[in-house]
Design goal:
120 residues, 3-stranded antiparallel β-sheet, 2 helices
């Protein structure tokens, strides 16, 4: 049975990828970040998510691999993605097929010379 955690922007699977298929595993976790491309990512922000994932997995070292533990990791990563959006490290992809603004409504900055979307 494949254990997994799926949030809006984070999917964690207790599996390996083999021939583009998920193969259940008891000792490997696979991370899928923003599968619907709702955000615009840069390498630095994506690296931060992977680093946070590694930290959360390390903190769980020795614990049983359960649905609850995977959901906790996925939920913590979802909150981390929200913090990246709120800090401006990532932005909504306005060309995405999905535009539900699940992490907060974008608005135009109050600064006159600043002509970009911000999240509050």
């Amino acid at each position: 049975m494949l254990l997994k955690s799926t949030t809006r922007h984070i999917r964690v699977f207790a599996a390996q990828i083999s021939d583009d298929e998920l193969v259940p595993s008891d000792d490997t976790l696979t991370l899928d970040v923003d599968p619907d491309n709702e955000f615009l990512w840069n390498d630095g922000a994506l690296q931060q998510v992977h680093q946070k994932f590694d930290e959360l997995v390390s903190a769980s070292d020795g614990a049983d691999l359960t649905d609850y533990n995977l959901r906790r990791i996925g939920s913590d990563l979802e909150h981390f993605v929200r913090s990246l959006l709120q800090s401006g490290a990532i932005a909504y992809n306005l060309q995405s097929r999905v535009r539900n603004y699940s992490m907060g409504l974008p608005r135009i900055s109050d600064e006159g010379a600043d002509n970009h979307l911000v999240i509050k």
